Please model this.
Amino acid sequence: MTASRVDPLAGLPLLEDLPDVDGRKVLVRADFNVPLHWPDGPEGPATVADDFRIRAAMPTLDWLTGRGADVTICAHLGRPQGDHDRRYEMTPVRDRLAELAPGVGLLDNLRFDPGEKANDPVFVDRLVDGFDYYVNDAFGVCHRSHASIVGPPARLPSAAGRLLAREVEALGGLLAHPSRPFLAVVGGAKVTDKLGVLRSLLDTVDRLVVGGGMAFTFLAAQGHSIGSSLFDESAVATCRAILDEAGERVLLPTDVVVRRTAPGGGEEVEVVGPDVPDDAAGLDIGPATARTFSAAVADAKTIFWNGPMGVFEDPRFADGTFAVARAIATSSGFSVVGGGDSVAALDELGLAGRVGFVSTGGGASLELLEFGDLPGLVALRHAPNAAPGG
Ligand code: 3PG
Ligand code: MG
Model:
């Protein structure tokens, strides 16, 4: 896929574009890849730790069942390797779904069958057998060319569900008509995963804030010492090219919270910066950086955030992520937040309700911003009931 800046909503068949669903069997692909909790340890039964993604499917399920459709959902959970795996059984999800949407069925984990990831046409045929229509509401998986995402629209009249349409509208709107200044805040550990989206964001955003583990490869590219912080040698040249091209539009940490071994053993936490001593590892942005980043957020009219600023699961390294989360929640600009960790940080502060749009997709939201389109959306535009030329 090449970067297109077409409206990703254009040509996408919506629920209204399905024939009458009354009495019809509808297969809904949802993203119910939710965190689980094992109250009695790994041998006991699991419960759903966060049902955000299940609740997010309710507008579509209500629309369909309210019009008399017989609805069955297909979904994946975790990353089983194409075989049955007790840890990834759908039971806890099914239990929660039964409370929210009684009468709606849920198939076994799609990834128990190798045909799902392989996009095997025989698996697609079996999946759609007996169904009249297909609805994709699994935004978080639309960047995957898996059988349940790209297969059914070639066989059945199909539609994007309400959640999928809202996601595409919110993220597509960032690219098409952002109020300026437009700021992107990107963090997390894996720099190589995000280089493509960073380059593409720099075509659109006014400023790019880089924090988290990935910032150290950028700092190294600038010639700073980074001690034993996260580092990806293979990304240095690209980081340097991005910095050369973007100049002052990219904001990097100027101070860092590090952990080092104390002289008598044990651990010390201190603020250095931006150079990190050899015996230390940077695990959060420092307080001066948190202020600079928060001020940049406060200046922006549009904000996109993906990825934490540090290892925020550890309270000693949470301040940077929480400062950014608070700045985004209190901003008067329009904010879109994607990715499980960023959303978890907002949730921990009780601030998820204070951002403009919380995406259910991590990788999918980044790929939509990077490429302007996703395999799951392309497939829907080619469904038999989609407008010609879509
Ligand atoms: C997610 O949780 O990001 C989506 O459900 C996709 O899952 P995957 O990254 O295992 O494909
Ligand atoms: Mg993921």
Notes: The mean pLDDT is 95. The two ends are 16 Å apart (CA to CA).
